[in-house]
Design goal:
Elements (H helix, E strand, L loop, with lengths): L8 H5 L6 E6 L2 E15 L2 E10 L6 E5 L3 E5 L6
Antiparallel strand pairs: 1-2, 1-5, 2-3, 3-4
Length: about 80
């Protein structure tokens, strides 16, 4: 049987650790920075999730579906 690609993995490929993102939580938008990625099995299906931390102090850490993230600013590596 063929292994399924994780739900949200196409979006995850366009995101990087350090990206500034908006995450909608119920009725408000939260500003966050991506700190990591993972694949979790939810409902018997692999799902792409991202670990994020608050960029504006409105929450601590959270784990969200990558499909719920919208990029505000891409991370840029400097030396």
């Amino acid at each position: 049987m063929r292994e399924r690609e994780a739900f949200g993995s196409l979006i995850a490929k366009s995101l990087k650790i350090g990206d500034l993102v908006i995450w909608k939580n119920y009725h408000s938008e939260k500003l966050a920075v991506i700190t990591g990625f993972d694949i979790k099995t939810i409902g018997g299906r692999p799902v792409s999730v991202a670990q994020i931390v608050s960029a504006d102090g409105s929450f601590g850490q959270a784990e969200v579906f990558t499909i719920n993230l919208k990029v505000v600013s891409k991370a840029v590596a400097t030396e």
